[in-house]
Design a protein that fits this description.
This protein is of the alpha/beta class and about 350 residues long. The chain has a ten-stranded mixed β-sheet with strand order 2-1-3-12-11-4-5-10-8-9, sandwiched between helices. Bound molecules: 3-isopropylmalic acid and magnesium ion. 3-isopropylmalic acid binds next to helix 4. The site of 3-isopropylmalic acid (IPM) has 3 residues, from helix 4.
Length: about 350
């Protein structure tokens, strides 16, 4: 196959990790007979520096002309909250999610076999394993609701951020979660705050309807505060966790932390049509940018997700994932990962993974 891939290298360590992910793409191409047409797309702080806007005109169209988008990382203190909205990298991220219709954000949190020691939880919890898929609604809720700021007569300034969800928005993300669970351990935990929020009560109604339809999948509701607690108490209980945008933002950081390896975790954002967007869940780490210190594995595993979810090529995805596991099993690690093995840089990590893909 020939795949068209948009590359958003971004800021900080973004360009370095994307470079290694592209090496992996090329290696997979050689071994499985694929070619690629890459298009560089400018987005984030680097776009603000170049053209004065973090989300330059035509960005969505350039991405839509491709089969998938690979993003390194965007943001940094240089483009902070004191900047006008159009110069902030976060604005660009939200805009591209919305414009590409990427309503489903898949964030797997897996404790990789070679890294049980890195898990900050008690050994008996780590040994039970962690392999969950966080499915976060990505284009609705409080992130995209109406915002207001106004003066009141006696309390000074008042602000509001509206959280709204429609049945349609809830149903489509719910269906994604159940479909994913069918390919995994067949369990869905739906997380909400139905004891307080009306949006959560609607969320629960819709999810209950779906649970009847997908009766082969085990289903449970969980309140978000309890879920935050269960993630550190007994993360092995979770298979697919589905939740609204902001709860998912918070819980997915927690889920990544308990695997002890934020530098290893990929993500996929998908909608009903191509392109999907693939990115590591870590940030742009400006403090180590350009020093060959960054861990490219999360971006490389994002390429595996690209093969799995955008290209329907499980074999290529498995080849990348098992190559990563083999390199980790040999105790090679980058500076972010605790360990007694051999510390290596960004480029060498990429090279070793490519070598393993070719060996297999
Ligand atoms: C994430 C990030 C973004 C979010 C920020 C940078 C806008 O935290 O992808 O989780 O909140 O969605
Ligand atoms: Mg976040």
């Amino acid at each position: 196959m020939n795949y068209k891939i948009a590359l958003i290298r971004g800021d900080g360590i973004g360009p370095e990790v994307v470079e290694q992910a592209v090496r992996v793409l090329d290696t997979v191409g050689k071994n499985f007979g694929h070619t690629y047409a890459y298009t560089d797309v400018l987005l984030g702080g680097c776009a603000t520096d170049a053209v004065g806007k973090s989300y330059p005109d035509g960005t969505a169209d350039k991405c839509k002309a491709c089969d998938a988008v690979l993003l390194g990382a965007v943001g940094g203190p240089k483009w902070g909250s004191d900047r006008p909205a159009e110069e902030r990298p976060e604005t660009a991220l939200l805009a591209i999610r919305k414009d590409l219709g990427l309503y489903a954000n898949l964030r797997p949190a897996v404790l990789r076999p070679a890294l049980t020691d890195a898990c900050p939880l008690k050994p008996e919890i780590a040994e039970a394993g962690i392999d969950l898929m966080m499915v976060r609604e990505l284009t609705g809720g409080v992130y995209f609701g109406k915002r207001a700021r106004y003066d009141t007569a006696d309390s000074g300034v008042e602000c509001s951020d509206l959280m709204a969800y429609s049945e349609r928005e809830i149903e489509r993300i719910g269906r994604r979660a159940f479909a994913l669970a069918r390919l995994r351990r067949k369990k869905v935990t739906s997380v909400d705050k139905a004891n307080v929020l009306e949006t959560s009560r609607l969320w629960r109604e819709v999810l209950h309807r779906l649970a009847q339809e997908y009766s082969d999948v085990a289903y449970e509701d969980m309140l978000v505060d309890n879920c935050a607690m269960q993630l550190v108490r007994n993360p092995g209980q979770f298979d697919v966790v589905v939740t609204e945008n902001m709860f998912g933002d918070i819980l997915s950081d927690e889920a990544s932390m308990i695997t002890g390896s934020i530098g290893l975790l990929p993500s996929a954002s998908i909608g009903n049509s191509a392109p999907g967007l693939y990115e590591p869940i870590h940030g742009s780490a400006p403090d180590i940018a350009g020093q060959d210190k960054a861990n490219p594995i999360a971006t490389i595993l994002s390429v595996a997700m690209m093969f799995r979810y955008s290209f329907q090529r499980a074999e290529e995805a498995d080849a990348i994932e098992s190559a990563v596991d083999r390199v980790l099993a040999e105790s090679f690690h980058t500076a972010d990962m605790a360990g007694s093995g051999t510390p290596i840089g960004t480029k060498q990590m990429g090279a070793l993974i490519c070598e393993q893909i070719t060996k297999k």
